[in-house]
Amino acid sequence: MLLAHAGQDVTVYEKQPVLGGRNAPISNNGYTFDTGPTFFLMKDVLEEIFAATGRDLSREVELMEIDPMYQLSWADGQTFWPWRDPAKMRPEMERVFPGSSSHLDRYLKKEQKKYATLVPCLKIPYSRWHHLLRPRLLKALPRLDLHRSLYGRISKFFREERLRLSFTFQAKYIGMSPWKAPGLYSIISYIEHGAGIWHVRGGLWKLSEAMARAAREDGAVIHTSTPVRRVIVENGKASGVELEDGRRELADEVIINADFAQAMTRLVDEKARKKYSDARLAKKAYSCSTFMLYLGLDTLYTHTGHHNIFFSGDYRNNVAEISETHQLSLDPSFYVQNPSLLDNSMAPAGHSALYVLVPLTNLKANIDWEQTKAQYRERILDLLEKRAGFADIRSHIRFEHMITPADWEEQHDVYLGATFNLGHNLGQMLIFRPHNEFECVKHCWLVGGGTHPGSGLPTIYESGRITASLIMKGLR
Q1: Cβ of 401: how many Cβ atoms within 10 Å?
Q2: Within a domain: residue 214?
Q3: Helix, strand, or coil here: 312?
Q4: pLDDT tens digits for range 121-132
Q5: Which of 121, 139, 284, 289 fits 362 for a cystine, CB–CB 3.0-4.6 Å?
Q6: Bridge partners of 33?
Q7: Which helix (H) or strand (E) holds 136?
């Protein structure tokens, strides 16, 4: 969008027949699902990007705020409905956690200051060591909470264990444990409370569609069903791409938007990326994976929220199984989106498009998913009936699609099936993360969750804005 609007000749080669990657639609028989992201946060980032090309995001897609933001449920049947509106959040906190609401204002005030200080640091690149000495980052250092975990940070505000989980489960948005994720990520829950959670009518994939439409209007050429075999690297410089059919397309600059580690191991010759050799990539920390069910139902269940999180009976152990011991969770936490309650465009009248996500260990666990998937599907359907209240759900399934951790790697080109990309530990952030201006190959650039600032839709959009700015700066 940004480069085409600036007058550059932009050509996109997309392997799949539809655009968006993990933000693409899955459609069948009138049912439509988002493949991956279902929470739209920090919409101001994309609003600014559309505005930079002379457009208004709200005219390109229909935005709908979700409030209460989600339903949280525990194994003993307790539920909690967090609101963005503090006037509604306080009585809900008192209903579930008596005496806790007095701490909400302190949390909001402290985290708002942290957010305002930290977010500007995520809008700039970190490709040289001296970039760590930039005034805005030095100013933010006291608020980064580098000495404590996300869970430790939130524990400063709330005493009740389940209330702490209500403000830390968001670590799953970056595929991490709240007990391991750096304390700076407390801004994620503040982003929800400060700026809201949004749905896009038709699904969040409509954002990718709108961006493609804008890029094409400004002259970009987009080829779908056109896989890239490799990036052409000559004398340490990227000079174009070789397509799967053997054609060579030359360019002044090459931007890689594929999953980082998968792109390195499949698209870039190992001799050209010694810093990211296959062996070094294998040793890096990666996010969790997910087991997915997309269910087209011939009925509408009205007892849930739009977003619903169901905690494992032993949540801390469940998180450890995912991120530390790499075991298959038999008592998993899971997430259900029931968008048809709000949006009647995603399923036929009277039907619903149910999205089910189960965070699981990535492929480091060496689980044979071909042998395991049918049994695990039954376990999740049982949980949907018994824990989530979707009575007799099997009899209502009219369409079904499944994605296992192995499918993420084999069908969606996600390294180790790690759906949230490289881990977000301190050793893989800022300058320690693959740079937007790829440090191994000249005229080669990165965007997406595997580069700075990291995973999640708004930060991925920000990576695109950073990279576009760097390219334009070099062309001046």
Answers
A1: 16
A2: no
A3: coil
A4: 888 888 888 888
A5: 289
A6: 26
A7: helix 135-140
